[in-house]
Amino acid sequence: MSFDHILPVTNDRDTAGFFEACKNKTLVYRVCQSCNAALNPPRAHCGICGSWDTAWREANGRGRLYSWTTVCHQVHPAYRVPYTVVIVELEDAPEVRLVGQLNGSPDLRAGMAMQVWFETLGDGTVLPQWEPIEKTQQGKES
Length: 142
Known about the structure:
Shape: globular
CATH class of the largest domain: Mainly Beta
Number of strands: 8
C-alpha cells in the first residue's frame, strides 16, 4: 500500500473556509467581528463576548517559531524520517498557532522568524507549511 499524505478533513463547517483560502495560497484565521478576538481553533461562536458574528481574516503569512519536535522513528509510511513538526504563532495574531512540517532535522531556535508556503497534495488539498525566513532569504541570495 502506498501513502502520499494523511489528508485533513477539508469540508468541516468550522475549518472549510481555512482550506478554501489555502487553495488560493492565502493564509487566514477566524476572528470575532464584535470584539476582534482571534478564534483558534476556528469556530462560529466567540467564547469571549458570545457573538456569532465571526469571519475569516487574511494573515500576512509570517510568524515566530513557538515550538518544535523532530520525529526520528517512523510512525506512518506517509512520513519519511526524520521530519520536524513545528508550531508557529502568527505575527498578526500571536494567540493563533498553526502546525507545519519541515523535512529533516533543521537547526531551529525558539522565536525565529518563519514564512508560510503552500504544499499541494496529490488529491489537490493545499496545506500551509512553514520555513525559516533566514533560509528563504539565503536561497534568494544564492
